[in-house]
User: What shape does this take?
Amino acid sequence: MNAIEKGELKKNLKYVVTTGMVTVLVTNIVGLIMPLCLTYEAYAEYKIYTTYIAFAGLLHFGFINGVYLEYGKLNYDQLPKDKFRAYFLILLIMQMLVTVGMVVFALFCFKEYKLSYFYVALNVPLINLNCYFSLINQFTKRFKKDTTVQGAQSLLWCILAIGLFFGVTDDSREVLPQVLFINLFAMIYQIAINCDIAFGKREKIKNVWCDVKGFIKSGSYVMLSELIGLILINVDLIFVQHLFSVYDFAIYAFAVSIINAVYALMTYVNGICYPYLVRENDEGKTFEKLHNIMLDLGILFLATYYVLEVILREFVPQYTDSIPVIKILYVTILVKMIVMGVYNNVCKVLKKNNVFLVINIFVLIVSVVLNWVAFVGGESVEAIGIASVVSSLIWLAALEIFVHLKVPYVFVWIRIFIAVIAFLCLNYNFVLSVCLYLFVNVVCKFVLGRLDSKIGSKT
Assistant: This one.
């Protein structure tokens, strides 16, 4: 990567991180305001909608992921626009058929909460078309345009939150149409930005049909991997919901919401890596650098817990019982920073998405077993949290075994082990804890770096 590309990467990273932080903040504010301002029945309607709309990505059947993998190396002006206009028409028709099917299914197969399922059906094509153009913006490195759409979307969510807070809206029959409008706005905005690959002279559908089948075949591995990853993130919460008391569930759910907010930010950062990785000629050195960067970022990010703890004790005292769980689950951030930031992208570049999928399925099975053992043996939410940490470590270990990179794994695991032990053991005031934690990890990195250099020079 030359100096120009490095400067471009830093600029795009600034756009993505800033917009990601705003989006995560707005999402959490809306998430806190919704249960306070809606009636119980209205909130139940809304939660059913949010639960099922999370799986909207399954209903493009891997098509979008396939386009992402096939054209990820190209800049926007290099895209075959005639073909992309045909792809857009095919995706649009596909999504309209899905919506019609879902509406009919909702009307005739559900007796309760038909409104929620109806709005899920209406929002699926909006979200998937938005996602399609968003990924095109990402792999063509047009991050500024994409973050503009996300920023406008966040502004509309803020207006909705203000309306809820001041009592303008307190019914799901009013909230869900507003959510529909926000998603419709985002989709139209994306199409306007990308109008020259959406409208105009297009290739005949029969001429690109083989491409579409190829997209679905290759993209389905990525899509299913993302689904398994989504379940993996929530499997511990499912156990707590069904096997523990309502109080324990509330405590654990609050902890998970904090961690998921960080995961959401990681997703935004993760999206910027692939376009640069796929264009690199010297993949080995680039993968190693990315691994080191994500390891450093993960270790550094653990230090933010000590500040977060002070904020929670000061401003959210009713959830102080969640703090031990949050501290345990915080460890998974370090591991998943490497898993999602490095191996998820590396498998796409090396076309090992099937390997990533198989490993995810294996880890999901392991996670279910460990959570059950934690429930039977520990009977506490802290034990479930520990099971999640162990599952994430197994996830990383499996990926490092089967997707081998030129990385000094022994030193990596020593750094992870020391960082986790230091993080869990330091319980002083936040200033002293942060200073000691950073000191231990800086010394560890320096010593292991020197040792690695000596070993490398001898070989």
Observations:
- Residues 220-459 form one domain.
- The chain has two domains: 1-203, 220-459.
- The mean pLDDT is 83.
- Residues 293 and 332 are 17 Å apart (CA to CA).
